[in-house]
Amino acid sequence: MKIAILGYGNLGRGVEAAIKQNSDMELFAVFTRRNPETVKIQTENAKVLHIDDMLNYKDQIDVLVICGGSATDLPVQTPEYVKYFNVIDSFDTHAKIPEHFENVDKNAQNSGKIGIISVGWDPGMFSLARLYGNAILPNGNDYTFWGKGVSQGHSDAIRRIDGVVDARQYTIPVESAVNAVKNGETPEFTTRQKHTRECFVVVEDGADKNYIEKQIVTMPNYFADYDTTVHFITMEEMKRDHQGLPHGGTVIRSGKTGWDNQNNAIIEYNLKLDSNPEFTSSVLIAYARAAYRLNQKGEKGCKTVFDIPPALLSAQTPEELRKQLL
Amino acid sequence: MKIAILGYGNLGRGVEAAIKQNSDMELFAVFTRRNPETVKIQTENAKVLHIDDMLNYKDQIDVLVICGGSATDLPVQTPEYVKYFNVIDSFDTHAKIPEHFENVDKNAQNSGKIGIISVGWDPGMFSLARLYGNAILPNGNDYTFWGKGVSQGHSDAIRRIDGVVDARQYTIPVESAVNAVKNGETPEFTTRQKHTRECFVVVEDGADKNYIEKQIVTMPNYFADYDTTVHFITMEEMKRDHQGLPHGGTVIRSGKTGWDNQNNAIIEYNLKLDSNPEFTSSVLIAYARAAYRLNQKGEKGCKTVFDIPPALLSAQTPEELRKQLL
């Protein structure tokens, strides 16, 4: 299976590493908007090519993994490239998924290709946990907790404040809230009761720290609804202690079983990731295998993780899976 | 969707309760080997009928949920009844799944029906957790811990000892082992290091408790490889404290991501169930919906949880699922 990567940021590098772990795949090329000569990749024998040349290789690529951002890249790129390739993306603007689905589906139906969108962990594996939980326990409540992990959107928001040089924001689930749900309680939480936010901020010399702290903790949508802690640190501390992109979280379905709903059943799906982009990439690559197989079977159109039979993700045969993992 | 239940034990009663929670389904009938007049069910307007009359109703039943045992019932019943019905079973003899699959598939291919086998939580949801974990993190280790919960097979084994009136056996995961895996360690455990077994036993007046205890803790296959604790209790205590059938457990995939496998990624799927049979039944009913839909689409043959697109389990439409759960 020949895979191409479009975009070589954190996610693209993660996809490259994930391909290396899967012996039935190889990296054909990385496509970039930059000058290809300036992009150094890790894989021997794979090309670095300019995005403008991509269509020249359409018959040599089984699946294109699109590693752009959800704000401006993916809404354009995924519908466009599914005209020529089987594609996978990690589109994560939850509210716009239905629209993105329609745009990709229309072009995929015409081209006869497969486009699997919103692949990763949320949306992605967490969505699957919610779906399985809801289907099995229709009488129940959903809880999703994120973290502890770095939120890149919130870190960026802090960096845009005047006087801020660098910032890292950690989202932290409130332990007592998680434990209450795990113990079968079904509280209704406010935003503040579920997560706290912790910020590590490097500022310019002479910057007004009180002003910056106030700008952060009162920022609408991002911080105002949370208990937020701000730590001012040096650039040395930032580089020493905050270079990783860990993340994770927990999806819990807390439901009732029995004729009189007398029994609790609690389903928990939990991720603990040293590298958020590398894990997302690993999920993308498993679904790339499914996209290829579906297309080989003559299927076409836009799909999500909800539509994919789990066996298609695995390099093992159905017989091996039934024998070894069922 | 009209569902029929074959066998009205703990599992059959659980299926009846699960149907009540799903508004797109109704219980058509319970079929039994007993005299139907002696079987009292909870659902108004559903029939209790003898198993010998089942084929007379084959055109009125969308899915038959077979609630027999894996030792002798299911190997016969599932291949037989898939000749006439879409069927679901919870066949859980892991080593014999490939053979059972072949037997069901052959007859389902001929009849044009769907048979989904080995549905429940292990095999079932735990199998799915293993498959998704392996596909996403090919470089990793699998861990499955069971409990705390009642093992009915082990309880039965104790009851067969002379002088024992009743017994309940709890399987308990070793907390330090679970925590080591959750923390990213990848130890190789012996059987003894993963689980302990705790037994509550009621004996006849004058029985030799030392002898019985020794019979239990040295019993090959069941207890000899474990640290086993035996508590002798009264029948009153048994009835007061040990009437439930709780169970659960944890599947962990501990893997590596990154070009140099430098990062840990830990996926955990955890169940905590007040009622093991009711939860199994809830899973069966979600897959009954999938069986019906697959058959409506013209599909046939034997399937497992690995083959079923998750969206087919849910009463919601694909559009609703993408909007609300993705």
What does this structure look like?
2 copies of one chain form a homodimer. The first copy, chain A, is α/β, with parallel strands linked by helices. In chain A, 34% of the residues lie in helices and 26% in strands. Chain A contains 11 helices and 14 strands. Chain A has a 7-stranded parallel beta sheet with strand order 3-2-1-4-5-6-14, sandwiched between helices. A 4-stranded mixed beta sheet of chain A has the order 8-9-10-11. A 3-stranded antiparallel beta sheet of chain A has the order 7-12-13, sandwiched between helices. Chain A starts with a strand and ends with a helix. In chain A, 51% of the residues are buried. The mean pLDDT of chain A is 97. The interface between A and B is large, with 72 and 72 residues.
